[in-house]
């Protein structure tokens, strides 16, 4: 048998390469790895299960805010939007002639007296025409006087037979015709005089200047306004009410008027009511006279008119946010012994951010405001009592409430 030649570069075999692992050792290694994997999985499962919440969230108390229902009385009312108007208002401008504006002597806010000059117009043409008509009238008057004397002298000659009746009648007719021409001329002179007086625009009453619409140099025609005047020593609060409220807005009924331009409401009575409704809107015109000697109310502004009707009745008051209104019913959640109870009550009315329910809701009941949208009947709640004096509640901590 031949032998292979010895390779000096080849290293000798180690003991591991020479001896393979036994089957028992291999099985032990595989089993240990499997146990390690199983133990790690069990550890992870146990850790995840430790953070699970076994309590249903629906059974936990919900944080809510509650207010105490108040016993009060409610009286139905009507509210209308009205306009503050002046007692008298006029627009000052020419009525007969067209001319250029010469001067405007007032500004908005000025106080004027009756007859005070507001503006003047350049009426040189009108003045010249007036003088021409006046001279013509004087000439006609002289002619008529002469014809009248002549007719009288001719009539005297009739007794001596020196004048015929026809001639006398003719002279009388000429005198009467000239008298008619004179009267026509006098009428034209009066018209010309009125046109001249129309050149000076005066205040028809004592009041205040509301607007100034033109300045000197502008050309105005009859009907155009140079300035407007108002008298607001007494203002008229004007409202249009629905036809169904005709019986409750009788003259003499007490109302509360709150002008938006004033700081407080004014107590007044209805002064007059139209006997007919507007055909297009089916509303009735109502006026309320409000004395304003201090002239504190600007006209043309808005006012709210409140009128109480019917008799006061017992009610329970709540903030408007505590209810869900549908038709004439209101749904509320009442907190009692840590539970939310859903209830429905009749609505009497609302005013100023408050709602008035029937007295079936007992005064002092804790009605839920905030958090009510997520509640169901019978839910557990944790209540925080809040105080309310008006539309906006103020938090007040309730005994036993969580911080």
List the helices and strands and how they pair.
Layout: H1 15-18, H2 23-50, E1 62-68, E2 70-74, E3 77-92, E4 99-104, E5 111-112, E6 117-122, H3 124-156, H4 165-197, E7 200-202, E8 207-212, E9 219-220, E10 227-242, E11 254-259, E12 266-269, E13 272-277, E14 283-291, E15 302-308, E16 313-319, E17 324-326, E18 329-336, E19 339-351, E20 354-357, E21 366-368, E22 381-388, E23 393-395
Parallel strand pairs: 1-22
Antiparallel strand pairs: 1-21, 2-16, 3-10, 3-15, 4-6, 4-9, 5-8, 6-7, 8-10, 10-14, 11-12, 11-15, 13-14, 16-20, 17-18, 18-19, 18-21, 19-20, 22-23
For the residues shown, what is the average pLDDT? 81
CATH topology group of the domain at 63-74 and 312-395: conserved putative lor/sdh protein from methanococcus maripaludis s2 fold
Estimate percent helicity. 10-25%
Largest β-sheet summary: 10 strands, mixed
SSE pattern: HHEEEEEEHHEEEEEEEEEEEEEEEEE
Number-wise, the strands total 23
Which parts are unreliable, with pLDDT below 50 for 5 consecutive residues or more?
391-403
Structural class: alpha+beta
| Beta-strand percent range | 35-45%
If classified by CATH, what would the architecture of the domain at 63-74 and 312-395 be?
Answer: Beta Barrel
């Amino acid at each position: 048998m031949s032998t292979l030649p010895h390779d000096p570069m080849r290293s000798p075999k180690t003991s591991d390469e020479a001896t393979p692992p036994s089957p028992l050792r291999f099985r032990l290694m595989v089993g240990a790895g499997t146990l390690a994997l199983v133990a790690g999985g069990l550890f992870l499962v146990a850790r995840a299960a430790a953070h699970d919440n076994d309590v249903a969230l629906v059974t936990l108390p919900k944080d809510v805010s509650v207010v105490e229902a108040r016993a009060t009385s409610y009286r139905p009312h009507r509210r209308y939007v009205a306009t503050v108007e002046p007692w008298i208002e006029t627009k000052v401008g020419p009525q007969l002639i067209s001319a250029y504006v010469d001067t405007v002597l007032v500004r908005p806010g000025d106080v004027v007296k009756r007859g005070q000059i507001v503006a003047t117009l350049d009426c040189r043409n009108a003045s010249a025409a007036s003088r021409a008509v006046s001279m013509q009238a004087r000439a006609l008057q002289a002619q008529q006087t002469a014809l009248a004397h002549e007719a009288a002298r001719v009539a005297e000659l009739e007794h001596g037979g020196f004048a015929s009746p026809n001639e006398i009648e003719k002279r009388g007719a000429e005198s009467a015709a000239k008298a008619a021409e004179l009267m026509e001329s006098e009428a034209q002179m009066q018209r010309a005089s009125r046109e001249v007086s129309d050149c000076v625009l005066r205040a028809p009453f004592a009041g205040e200047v509301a607007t100034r619409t033109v300045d000197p140099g502008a050309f105005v025609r009859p009907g155009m306004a140079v300035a407007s005047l108002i008298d607001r020593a007494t203002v008229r609060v004007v409202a249009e009410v629905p036809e169904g409220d005709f019986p409750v807005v009788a003259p003499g009924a007490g109302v509360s008027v709150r002008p938006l331009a004033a700081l407080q409401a004014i107590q007044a009575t209805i002064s007059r009511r139209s006997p007919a409704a507007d055909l297009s809107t089916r509303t009735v015109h109502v006026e309320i006279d409000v004395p304003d000697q201090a002239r504190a109310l600007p006209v043309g502004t808005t006012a709210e008119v409140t009128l109480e009707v019917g008799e006061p009745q017992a009610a329970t008051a709540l903030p408007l946010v505590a209810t869900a209104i549908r038709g004439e019913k209101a749904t509320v959640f009442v907190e009692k012994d840590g539970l939310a109870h859903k209830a429905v009550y009749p609505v009497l009315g609302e005013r100023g951010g408050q709602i008035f329910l029937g007295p079936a809701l007992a005064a002092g009941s804790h009605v839920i405001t905030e958090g009510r949208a997520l509640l169901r009947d019978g839910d557990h709640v944790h209540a925080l009592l809040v105080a309310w004096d008006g539309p906006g509640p103020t938090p007040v901590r309730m005994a036993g409430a969580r911080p």
